[in-house]
User: Fold this.
Amino acid sequence: MDLRIPIVALLVACSCAVLAAPAQAAPGRAGVAALQVALRGAGVYAGGIDGVRGPGTAAGVRAIQRRAGLTVDGIAGRSTRRALGRRGRPGYGSRAMRAGHSGWDVAALQFKLGARGFPSGPVDGGLGPRSAAALRRFQAWAGLAADGVVGRATFRALRRAPRRSPVRLRRPVRVPIGDRFGPRGVGFHGGLDFPAPSGTPVTAAGFGTVATVGYSPGGWGNFVVIRHRFGLRTLYAHLSSIAVRRGQFVGVGRLIGRVGATGAATGPHLHWELLLRGANVNPLSAL
Assistant:
């Protein structure tokens, strides 16, 4: 029996599987996000706060440079930062941050918190109540004193790479991915969106126990949370119907509900999140 053809076919199939795997976007940089916040405040940038230095960010820098009579090179150096006034300072890490502070460093902090699973609302450079609450949650998650002050220990914890899923999971709905985890507009999107027709089956991504079945009118609508191993939970939101009950054990692929547009949804889709001990984790790290 000639085994060469099956082996070649297997290699092709493996290659196709690799190509079909969802690609993760390059992560943004907190310093670029802080620059984008400053440029928005100066009225020369209307894009999202994604931490990626694209054409819009470069154009905003050149606009500030022309306004200040500087060399128009599109590089946000010291002179350009000074031209941004209070929005261009203080530098990240130059002071201990606490509630009520504002500026460049706070915008970078907000971006870092979002990337590590603790979004704090709009990334706007102001350490208000929502940002302060996200900061305290991050500190507690990192095993630090949750005092709401960004000192040396918190700076060190923020330098650690964002966590990844400790387990592999199955896609909860068999449709292409829409919006992904990460910056969206001026805030952060905490999961993946799967646009699909209402009624599309939603299945458990991994085995576990149903921890919550609920309804949030101004947010997730009908939602289910499943508790898995290693402190991991998955959340399934905007469901049109729910097919499980709290405390029920579910296996991989078990029907838990159907796609809908309940809660704060502009159209039918599944919003899916991974939470590791309370921190949002990029779901792509599990697929």
Summary: Helices lie at 4-20, 30-41, 55-68, 78-83, 104-115, 129-141, 152-159.
